[in-house]
Amino acid sequence: MGFTSWWHWAIVAIVLLILFGSKKLPDAARGLGQSLRIFKSEVKEMQKDDKADETAASTDAPQRELPPADNATPNTSSNADTKKSA
Question: Which UniProt keywords apply (predicted)?
Protein backbone atom coordinates (compact mmCIF):
# COMPACT_ATOMS: atom_id res chain seq x y z
CA MET A 1 0.00 0.00 0.00
CA GLY A 2 2.42 2.73 1.18
CA PHE A 3 2.44 6.35 -0.01
CA THR A 4 1.98 5.60 -3.68
CA SER A 5 -1.61 6.77 -3.83
CA TRP A 6 -2.39 10.42 -4.65
CA TRP A 7 -4.86 10.75 -1.79
CA HIS A 8 -2.14 9.83 0.74
CA TRP A 9 -0.10 12.78 -0.51
CA ALA A 10 -3.17 15.02 -0.43
CA ILE A 11 -3.78 14.17 3.23
CA VAL A 12 -0.13 14.87 4.07
CA ALA A 13 -0.32 18.24 2.28
CA ILE A 14 -3.50 19.21 4.14
CA VAL A 15 -2.00 18.25 7.50
CA LEU A 16 1.14 20.30 6.74
CA LEU A 17 -0.99 23.32 5.80
CA ILE A 18 -2.97 23.01 9.01
CA LEU A 19 0.13 22.62 11.19
CA PHE A 20 2.34 25.31 9.65
CA GLY A 21 -0.13 27.61 7.94
CA SER A 22 0.12 29.00 4.46
CA LYS A 23 2.58 31.75 5.46
CA LYS A 24 5.14 29.62 7.30
CA LEU A 25 5.13 26.67 4.89
CA PRO A 26 7.13 28.39 2.08
CA ASP A 27 9.71 29.61 4.60
CA ALA A 28 10.02 26.13 6.06
CA ALA A 29 10.46 24.63 2.58
CA ARG A 30 13.07 27.27 1.71
CA GLY A 31 14.98 26.54 4.92
CA LEU A 32 14.85 22.82 4.23
CA GLY A 33 16.17 23.36 0.72
CA GLN A 34 19.05 25.49 1.97
CA SER A 35 19.90 22.90 4.61
CA LEU A 36 19.98 20.13 2.01
CA ARG A 37 22.16 22.24 -0.29
CA ILE A 38 24.65 22.87 2.53
CA PHE A 39 24.62 19.19 3.50
CA LYS A 40 25.35 18.10 -0.09
CA SER A 41 28.22 20.57 -0.42
CA GLU A 42 29.75 19.35 2.85
CA VAL A 43 29.50 15.71 1.75
CA LYS A 44 31.22 16.56 -1.55
CA GLU A 45 33.93 18.44 0.32
CA MET A 46 34.53 15.48 2.64
CA GLN A 47 34.79 13.11 -0.33
CA LYS A 48 37.24 15.47 -2.03
CA ASP A 49 39.34 15.66 1.15
CA ASP A 50 39.37 11.86 1.47
CA LYS A 51 40.61 11.47 -2.11
CA ALA A 52 43.30 14.09 -1.51
CA ASP A 53 44.40 12.30 1.67
CA GLU A 54 44.63 8.97 -0.16
CA THR A 55 46.76 10.38 -2.95
CA ALA A 56 48.98 12.25 -0.48
CA ALA A 57 49.49 9.10 1.57
CA SER A 58 50.44 7.08 -1.49
CA THR A 59 52.94 9.68 -2.76
CA ASP A 60 54.46 10.56 0.63
CA ALA A 61 55.38 7.02 1.58
CA PRO A 62 56.80 5.20 -1.44
CA GLN A 63 57.06 1.49 -0.95
CA ARG A 64 60.54 0.12 -0.44
CA GLU A 65 61.70 -2.77 -2.50
CA LEU A 66 63.40 -5.48 -0.52
CA PRO A 67 66.43 -7.19 -2.02
CA PRO A 68 65.75 -10.72 -3.24
CA ALA A 69 66.50 -13.52 -0.84
CA ASP A 70 69.91 -15.03 -1.50
CA ASN A 71 69.30 -18.77 -1.33
CA ALA A 72 72.42 -19.52 -3.39
CA THR A 73 74.88 -19.15 -0.47
CA PRO A 74 76.52 -22.51 0.21
CA ASN A 75 76.20 -24.14 3.58
CA THR A 76 79.79 -24.34 4.89
CA SER A 77 79.06 -26.54 7.87
CA SER A 78 78.93 -30.27 7.39
CA ASN A 79 77.33 -33.02 9.36
CA ALA A 80 80.71 -34.03 10.73
CA ASP A 81 81.28 -30.55 12.15
CA THR A 82 77.96 -30.54 13.94
CA LYS A 83 78.49 -34.00 15.37
CA LYS A 84 81.91 -33.08 16.78
CA SER A 85 80.63 -29.99 18.55
CA ALA A 86 77.76 -31.86 20.17
Answer: Cell membrane, Membrane, Protein transport, Translocation, Transmembrane, Transmembrane helix, Transport
- Dihedrals phi, psi of 85, to nearest 5 degrees: -75, -15
**Spans of all domains in the chain:** 22-57
Neighbours of 3 (CB within 10 A): 9
pLDDT given at position 83:
58
9, 3 contact by CB (below 8 A): yes
The number of angstroms, rounded, from the C-alpha of 24 to the middle of its chain's C-alpha atoms is 37
Helices (H), 1-86: 6-60, 79-85
User: pLDDT of 25-75, one tens digit each?
Assistant: 889 889 999 999 999 999 999 999 888 877 777 665 556 777 777 776 666
For the segment 77-82, the average pLDDT, to the nearest whole number, is 58
Buried b (16+ CB within 10 A) or exposed e, 57-80: eeeeeeeeeeeeeeeeeeeeeeee
